């Protein structure tokens, strides 16, 4: 039997392999000896590549016998000598790999069901030829169908297949096939509709990749890095929820070790960007404080101390940002325009957005550490915080120079400019008086920036609100905002928020606080009662009508009380876009705020109520309708 497949394979076309009918008759035989003889012939039939013949072979032998042959080869069935078991194993794998070259057969439930057994072979065999055959077979199954690829997510399968990779010889065919299989699964598996059981399998893949990323110092390290960023950079992924629910584990530390190795060594910029993206993903999934948590790893590897790791990531990001800003400015304003230039600009803008997102998270982490709100395991030193703040100041100054360059060239539209405005806003939210002169000169321009898909400025103003709500607490900040009519842009921004689906209360509060501060500290700046003014009143009434939250009621009513102190009921009703219905809603809002019980420990609401009461007493006679409604419900 051993010689016939060889002779048949070497024969010319005129003398084909043993007749298919003979092979099928043997495979359908009742005795195992007949089936085994048939399989020896079937191996050559599969090599011939006739899809129809392969399908007949598979139907004749059936998956049950092939699974039994694999179990025998794995020693799960009693009897048989060791050399016989290995021969059975080789035969089963060879035939299965041949059958799986026909996608219809590879997608069959019977072939798919062999995945856990083949994975077990990978985990137990030391024979490179057997392992290669296993990986080829598994890849064919994964490619052929969704069911085939999802079979890998069953408990233990991923671990059996990929935990051995780090022990495979570097540059070997085995490791090439293993990485190709893992890459195939990473790109093919979709998390959205996965069961919890299958997601558990994906966490095993993350764990395996993290280990490879940490321990290997070959090209596979970069393969692992790319696959990790693919898995972890997907937004709102259920895999992230499962990773968050896992107890602190070695995979987090392994990723830290891998990132350190990439950033500390001389590697191309694109790989450093991938490592920085991975750091951003980890902070996105596990929280900003992941970067500064003191993780222990029970291994022989030297883990970089927390403070050095924080500064390594930050400094690496700062260097890449400085390079990208220079390159972008050159490509946009100085080089000749070509399609290749446009493509290069888009790629650099995407890379810049990744780095900005990472630096924003580091800003948040530094803020938490400075305020004592960081995680209990956070051990970052004060000197590290100060060094990080110095570096952040320098980077924000570079970003402002980039915006100044855009202003000088008359460019105010683009997602890169919007991203620059966002990171500036994030930093100024924590340090509102940083880069004070540059901000004073650029604030009007920042207010004019539009994203690529925006028809008018909105998000650029939203990004500035945390800073504006702080600097307008002083007259100097109000003067800056009034110098270019910036308060009107804030009002327009607030009005737009109320017109969107799902009002962002956080941004609404910041916008209201900015305008309240501005009106309280404006010192002679005149606010005209125009259409902008009317739209603001109507927006505040609309916002307050969407919720019963006391914070919304008091904030909206406080600002309304300040606004209507500038005019009269008669004037408002003379305006075409203000009617008695709006006046009625405004009256109800004032009543609700006056009836509101303010908690003793809520200083902000207490101050707001004082503003409402004192304002009402000043303007009540000018608003007879409002006064009448108030007097029916509350005594002021």
Automatic annotation (TrEMBL):
Pfam families: Neurochondrin. Coiled coil: none annotated. It comes from the Eukaryota. This is Neurochondrin family protein. It comes from Urochloa decumbens.
């Amino acid at each position: 039997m051993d010689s016939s497949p060889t002779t048949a394979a070497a024969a010319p076309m005129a003398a084909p392999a043993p007749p298919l009918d003979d092979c099928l008759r043997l495979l359908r035989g009742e005795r195992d000896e007949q089936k085994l003889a048939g399989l020896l012939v079937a191996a050559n039939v599969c090599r011939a590549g006739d899809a129809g013949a392969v399908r007949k072979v598979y139907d004749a032998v059936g998956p049950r016998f092939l699974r039994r042959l694999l179990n025998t080869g794995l020693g799960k069935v009693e009897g048989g000598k060791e050399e016989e078991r290995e021969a059975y194993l080789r035969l089963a794998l060879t035939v299965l790999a041949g059958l799986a070259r026909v996608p219809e057969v590879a997608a069959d439930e019977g072939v798919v069901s062999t995945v856990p057994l083949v994975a077990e072979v990978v985990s137990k065999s030391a024979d490179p030829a057997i392992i290669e055959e296993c990986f080829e077979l598994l890849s064919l199954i994964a490619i052929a169908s969704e069911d085939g690829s999802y079979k890998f997510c069953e408990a233990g399968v991923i671990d059996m297949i990929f935990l051995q990779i780090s022990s495979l010889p570097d540059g070997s065919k085995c490791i090439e096939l293993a990485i190709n299989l893992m890459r195939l699964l990473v790109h093919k598996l979709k998390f959205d509709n996965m069961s919890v059981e299958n997601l558990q399998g994906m966490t095993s893949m993350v764990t395996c990749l993290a280990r490879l990323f940490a321990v290997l110092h070959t090209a596979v390290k970069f393969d692992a890095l790319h696959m990790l960023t693919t898995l972890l950079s997907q937004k709102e992924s259920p895999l992230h929820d499962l990773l968050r629910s896992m107890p602190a584990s070695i995979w987090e530390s392994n990723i830290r070790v891998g990132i350190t190795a990439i950033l500390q060594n001389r590697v191309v910029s694109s790989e450093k960007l991938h490592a920085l993206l991975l750091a951003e993903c980890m902070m996105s999934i596990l929280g900003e404080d992941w970067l500064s948590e003191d993780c222990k790893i029970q291994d022989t590897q030297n883990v970089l101390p927390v403070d050095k790791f924080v500064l390594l990531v930050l400094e690496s990001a700062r260097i890449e940002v400085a390079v990208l800003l220079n390159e972008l400015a050159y490509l946009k304003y100085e080089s000749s325009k070509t399609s290749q230039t446009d493509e290069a600009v888009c790629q650099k803008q995407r890379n810049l957005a990744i780095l900005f997102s990472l630096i924003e998270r580091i800003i948040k982490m530094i803020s938490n550490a400075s305020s004592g709100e960081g995680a209990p395991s956070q051990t970052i030193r004060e000197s590290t915080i100060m060094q990080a703040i110095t570096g952040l100041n320098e980077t924000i100054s570079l970003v402002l120079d980039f915006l100044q360059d855009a202003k000088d060239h008359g460019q105010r539209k683009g997602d890169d400019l919007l991203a620059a405005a966002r990171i500036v806003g994030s930093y100024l939210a924590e340090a509102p008086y940083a880069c004070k002169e540059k901000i004073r000169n650029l604030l009007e321009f920042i207010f004019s920036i539009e994203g690529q898909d925006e028809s008018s400025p909105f998000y650029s103003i939203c990004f500035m609100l945390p800073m504006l709500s702080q600097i307008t607490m002083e007259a100097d900040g109000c003067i800056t905002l009034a110098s270019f009519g910036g308060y009107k842009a804030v009002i327009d921004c607030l009005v737009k928020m109320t017109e969107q689906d799902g009002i962002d209360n956080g941004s609404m509060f910041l916008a209201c606080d900015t305008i309240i501060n501005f009106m309280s500290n404006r010192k002679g700046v005149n606010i005209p009662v125009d259409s902008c003014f009317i739209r603001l009143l109507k927006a505040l009434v609309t916002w307050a009508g969407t919720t019963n939250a006391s914070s919304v009621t008091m904030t909206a009513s406080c600002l309304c009380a300040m606004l209507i102190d500038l005019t009269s009921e008669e004037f408002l009703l003379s305006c075409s876009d203000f009617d008695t219905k709006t006046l009625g809603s405004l009256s109800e809002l004032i009543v609700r705020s006056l009836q509101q019980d303010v908690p003793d420990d809520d200083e902000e609401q207490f101050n707001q109520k004082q503003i409402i009461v004192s304002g009402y007493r000043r303007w009540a006679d000018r608003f007879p309708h409002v006064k009448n409604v108030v007097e029916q419900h509350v005594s002021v």
